[in-house]
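Hi C.,

You asked whether I'd gotten around to modeling the 308-residue construct. I have! Everything is below, sequence then structure, no commentary in between.
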Amino acid sequence: MKMRFLLSIDTEAEFWKYIPHPFYSQSLLYRIKWYLNRVRGKFIYAKDKQGLVNIVNFLKANKFPATFNITGHLYLKSCKGWPHFKELKPLAKWSFKKDWYYWDPASNQDSSPGLYAGSYIEKTMKSNSLFDLGLHSFAHECWPLEDKKIVNSGVKAAILAAKSIGIKPLSFSAPFNITEDKKNSEVLYTSLKENGLKIVRYAGREEFPNKSLHKFKVVSPIRKKGLIFVHTSYTFDGTSKNERIQRIIQDIKEKAETSDKNAVYCLCCHDFTFKKIDYLEQIIKTVLELKKQGKIKLINARDLLKTH
């Protein structure tokens, strides 16, 4: 069996700017950087859901499979404001600012196009066999730092949002790659399993707020806690430095030659950074050449259900 390649895209449109990384709450310097990044993002990030559109058009043109883990609210076409499906408000002890649940407006895809993608997903992505459509929380919350009732209500809300346009998500990637915290290591996995999710992208454990134990790996997915775990192999974005892109390209070539035959190279990125598509184009060109040489097999996350 060839090394498998999985492109995993965290899809959050404009939700990136409303809930910051949990570790930012621990430092005034990081808070300042967060606010500056929001200002910077207005000029370099794709507006509304244009980053998603750019990626989808490019992948379709190249017949390239991918998994889009989508923030649950984006599956909607409109909402009456919070709560949407009787979900509970997160305690958000990890957040330093008033979050989504304070300002969530009654709106729709016409008045707030960066918060909704339901019609676009339904028309352009839903029936395309190249794409697996999963979840990326509901409003970009950090669920592993919440209690069980809050996590379960949020997972259910995200599933119901996807169901509103006829999609049953089976895969999940956590915002900030935080799937497991040392103080409450089971809370997210239990909820995902109980609500029918099958696949989770994993990068390592947290010890919030002390440190993150994330690592990149190219390994075979494993089944544990009733889920299939696929490990993050590398991350990049449309705004990454060119040096990182070249390093990833070289890494993919090397791993295609040396990795275990059951390994999955899981490459992750965010949709909103792709105002330009050139970095993705470079990587996809390399992967397609390796596929042509018979050294790599292209998959989406749902394909893992056939072999694990």
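If it helps when you're writing up: DSSP finds eight helices and 13 strands in the chain.

Thanks,
B.
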